């Protein structure tokens, strides 16, 4: 089976390919599609944005498409940056400026109040018009300074108590055990298998 992962983010591509390493599924990405034009992510929720991207990838390629929209929710900021995570500090998107803004806004917030979570919504769309939604969350705390260099986005500031390290300090294998994206990706694998074998399957979140 050949599918398209609707992202140009090499970190996401690597994570998903690792999860599918033992499966007979070939994963393409938007890096394999010439002259791809980004989809305007104007949905009100992560699921809305994921669906917009998945539908666009299906139309362009005719393949089963998977698209995620992920973001950071900080309790002390009333759930912000949320769906605006990638462009928190404005356009163009920039991880460093986003992290700088987050640190500035949380400067006076005590360590025990810096509770946050990563949330992911993953939509799989088929050429036949079927859509499936899976979701995942990862709980943690926002540190006062960056740690680690293996992640992307807010990973260097997102501390995972279970491992006593940030997301950016985890190995890919460790990250794929607990990350919000890995949870959503892992839930969609049985659905992919069922579609590949011609068996209908209903997605659950």
Automatic annotation (TrEMBL):
Annotated active site: 69
Keywords of the record: Hydrolase, Magnesium, Metal-binding, Nucleotide metabolism, Nucleotide-binding
Subunit and partners: Homodimer.
Function: Pyrophosphatase that catalyzes the hydrolysis of nucleoside triphosphates to their monophosphate derivatives, with a high preference for the non-canonical purine nucleotides XTP (xanthosine triphosphate), dITP (deoxyinosine triphosphate) and ITP. Seems to function as a house-cleaning enzyme that removes non-canonical purine nucleotides from the nucleotide pool, thus preventing their incorporation into DNA/RNA and avoiding chromosomal lesions.
Name of the molecule in the record: dITP/XTP pyrophosphatase
Catalytic reactions on record: ITP + H2O = IMP + diphosphate + H(+); dITP + H2O = dIMP + diphosphate + H(+); XTP + H2O = XMP + diphosphate + H(+)
Family membership: Belongs to the HAM1 NTPase family.
Binding site for substrate: 7-12, 70, 152-155, 175, 180-181
Cofactor binding description: Binds 1 Mg(2+) ion per subunit.
PANTHER family, per database record: INOSINE TRIPHOSPHATE PYROPHOSPHATASE, INOSINE TRIPHOSPHATE PYROPHOSPHATASE/HAM1 PROTEIN
UniProt organism field: Desulfosporosinus metallidurans
BP-aspect Gene Ontology terms: nucleotide metabolic process; purine nucleoside triphosphate catabolic process
Keyword Metal-binding: yes
Binding residue positions for Mg(2+): 40, 69
Cofactor: Mg(2+)
GO molecular function: dITP diphosphatase activity; ITP diphosphatase activity; metal ion binding; nucleotide binding; ribonucleoside triphosphate phosphatase activity; XTP diphosphatase activity
Coiled coil stretches, renumbered: none
